[in-house]
Amino acid sequence: MSSSLNIAVLSGGISHEREVSLRSGRRVADALTARGHHVTLLDPDASLFTKLADLKPDVVWPALHGSSGEDGALLGLLAAAGYTYVGPSASAARLAWSKPVSKTLVSRAGVATAASLTVAREAFRELGAGSVLELIASELGNHVVVKPASGGSSQGVSIVTASEELPRAMVDAFTYNDVALVEKFIAGTEVAVTVVDGAAGARALPAVEIVPLDGVYSFEARYNAGETTFYVPARLSDEISARISAAAITAHETLGLSPMSRIDLIVDETGEPWFLEANALPGLTETSSAPLAIEASGVEVGQLYEVLALAALND
To answer: Cα separations (Å) of 28 from 33, 41, 49, 160, 227?
Structure first.
């Protein structure tokens, strides 16, 4: 490192993922501080831009999850205010934030995605829940995944195996968003691939295989130590691993998620990777997959964070 940077790490916010964001922010701050940088943690509120004006950071690092950061609104404001930050453009974040939109774009780019239907809460009410549920079952079958059309950390996500479970799953999804995405269930191995941009372009770090103890990668399984077993690299052949990496890089580049993203996929029994979602500001907690992938790549976490901060400053 040539010189110490003044870095503002944003974490917290008011989304459902506030506590996760606070943990991510603390881990980023600790890693960058250990590299010799001056780091200030800020919780976005009405005084944020006043605090930033006083602090005059070289770089802002948004470690925000949920709508407080990942929908692109705050990123756009940071850019408008002239701050250099580590993260994608506001427009790219908006694309990734919407699961139906990102799914459509990534599918057009050639990556497999599950058959799905997008259902708005108002349509569910106006057209009649019964008829909509029948259409879903007719089109996608009874084994489906229901999730909010935006959001993260598996909040509001349900795996449905029987028709009588679907109404409750729709209600759970609508708790977090006015639009639900219903996808045909794809059986296979769940992996998370962190993609990082560098001088030579985007590269995929070792895939992290995710094996929840109870079979479902829920919010609790994501953030409670011991609830999930992670295998890094994933227990897959070199050929399949290469296919996963290629699919993740395609999704990352299609959505414009430089400098770092996490792409979630399911690998079916034939070795085909299926896109699930893209994360513009991936979790960086002690149980998150991105730090595991960084370490498995042979790079110290703080070193990579420093590289990303310097790259943002020099961009």
So the answer is: 8, 10, 21, 36, 23
Average per-residue pLDDT for the chain: 91
Residue with token string 């770089």: 59
Model confidence at 221: pLDDT above 60: no
* Ramachandran class of 56: left when φ > 0, alpha when ψ lies in -120 to 50, beta otherwise: left
* 38 touches 89 (CB < 8 A): no
User: What is the residue-wise DSSP string for 230-279?
Assistant: EESS-SS-HHHHHHHHHHHHHHHHHHT-TTEEEEEEEE-TTS-EEEEEEE
Other beta carbons within 10 Å of 203: 15
Cα dist from 135 to 15, 140, 183, whole Å:
32, 8, 13
- What is the set of active-site residues? 17, 153, 223, 262, 264, 277, 279, 283
pTM of the model: 0.91
For the cut 50, the answer to whether the pLDDT of residue 301 exceeds it is yes
Beta bridge partners of 113: 275
Angle between the N-to-C axes of helices 99-108 and 90-97, in degrees from 0 to 180, rounded to the nearest 10? 100
Dihedral angle, C-alpha 272, 278, 281, 283, nearest 10 °: -50
Residue 206: the pLDDT is 97
Q: What per-residue confidence (pLDDT) applies to 94?
A: 95
